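Record 1 of the preview.
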Amino acid sequence: MFWRCFASCQKDEVVMNNGLIGKWELIEYYMSIGGPLERYKPKDVYRIEFTTDGRYLATGQEPATYAFSSQDSTVSITNLSTKQTGVYSVRVNSNQLSMSFHYCIEGCSAVYKAVK
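->
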């Protein structure tokens, strides 16, 4: 009985990324449509990755590059085919990343956890 609980009661392994570099999985996001921010849980798995060579990879997205500015804690993500760039405020610790789109008038943000 103890072994069954031990095996099924273990917590998820905590993965620690090196700053922004690494793989991240969306765990919740916030949006406002004219009122207060509302919290949502993703229906599908959505992962992003910031590589050491400046590539940004995301589930179902075209390849992109990124540039991080430590001066104002922003990351600029540029789609390689359209050349469009989105700018995000970021807050990161070893196992959690928060990103807020700069041009979102009503407020919107996403929270990710570090994954292998």
